[in-house]
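Lab manual, section 2.4: Encoding a predicted structure.

Procedure: take the sequence of the chain (307 residues), apply the prediction step described in section 2.3, and record the output as structure tokens. A sample record is shown.
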Amino acid sequence: MDILQEHLVRARASGGVFARSVAIAPWGLRLPGTIQLAVHAVIQGRAWLWTEGGDSPLELRPGDLALVRGGPDHFIAHEPGALCVSPEDFRIQHAADEEKLDPRAAIFLCGAYRFAGDIGAGLVNALPPVLSIPSRIDNSIHGVVEILSRELAGAEPGRQTVLDRLLDVLVVLGLRTGLASSANAPAWFRGASDPRLSRALQAMHEDTCKTWTVEEMARLSNMSRATFARIFQEVLGGPPMKYLTDWRMTVARDLLRTHDTPLIEVAERVGYSSLYAFATAFRRIHGQPPGRWRQLESAAVEGTLTH
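Recorded output:
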């Protein structure tokens, strides 16, 4: 399993609302910033996308893909500054546009994606607020967009399963392209792309509970301990053992937040031989023991759900 794949699995990525729209100008759609990751692709015509208080509007042409990170509301319309309405009002206003077969109509796809926990948030936060991937940059994205459009326009058996899988593919392709071009790409992505470090990093991620040493990591990378430590510091911005501890704490937080896993099992799954050793490391980083941290997180979630 490569490291991006592992992050996607741990983030429990899942699609939300996904729709194909046909709209004759004038049209405009306002989408809330509560969407963790929005996905937009144009099939026919043109569309303009911008965020509230953001940079200049971005033009989307057929085959282009745009990923929009949660934050301020964002807009997609036939021209910059057009009046934009909620998805509910948009559907009512343009319900009959597809039947008119107007060649000037815009056809576009909009999706909402969500990720769980710190690992998922880290994936999304590594992207810029708006990521544009023109079709000329990644032909595979263009092909997936075309298939998605055909599936959304039809009503074949198993349609929803096909749509879910295609949306997964589209988001992964977009994330991969976005992370590769991002100045804020996470350290693990930079390291995984470096052939000198990728083997050791993958081994650490695949076997988090192993009692790792820098010497073992260096052997996997066919380097001396000193050379490995120096290159690791240069590429990932910190020493190997700190990276390993940070990753273990990230996994531990997600286990504490989303599972009823006993604390001793959490400790073992992230490489600590005893609950005491795990609790000491956790307290040093988070200022409180893991059991108390879990209680506070659970209370915060319950408070959000009741308001």
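Check your result against the sample. Residues 40 and 110 are 5 Å apart (CA to CA).
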